[in-house]
Amino acid sequence: MGMGVSSSSRSRGKRSRRAAMAEINVTPLVDVMLVLLIIFMVTVTLPAVGVPVELPESRAAPVEEKPDQITISIDRAGVIYIEDEPVAAGALPQALEALKRGGEPEPLVVLRGDRSLDYGRVMRVMGELGRAGFTSISLVTDGSVSAP
Questions:
Q1: 3-class secondary-structure state, position 131
Q2: Is the dihedral of CA 137, 141, 143, 148 positive or negative?
Q3: More confident position, 143 or 76
Q4: Which pLDDT value is given to residue 45?
Q5: Which residues are bridge partners to 112 per DSSP?
Q6: Helix ranges (DSSP H) in the chain
Q7: Quick check: 75 and 81 in contact, CB under 8 A?
Q8: How far is Cα 51 from Cα 48, in angstroms, rounded to an integer?
Q9: Mean per-residue pLDDT for 76-81?
């Protein structure tokens, strides 16, 4: 106890000078990087397409997303979107031809159609996809249906 008192009085009498810190504290950097990594991981798993479509229900097994997939959506009004860009009426064949990549394997096409659409409307889009040479097509449904 006496030793602690004498050492504190000694330090008060002298001006203590701290040596310059020669090392970098990386703990805050690691914390920030981990937060950014978590944010990135969460946002990557969110659907990239922002077209509001009410999907039909199904108990089908989910298909994993691929990095080179193309998403085509048909909303309630029947407007066709490639990713988030609307396609003018009658311009789907030209838009699909622009998507073809010469010499590369064809990408997976993910077709999202609103549940209120006429079956024929979805089939016409699938026919145009087939005519353009896209044969790998996945239909997206709402997988939240419980067993009967």
A1: helix
A2: negative
A3: 76
A4: 63
A5: 73, 140
A6: 2-13, 27-45, 92-99, 119-131
A7: yes
A8: 9
A9: 90
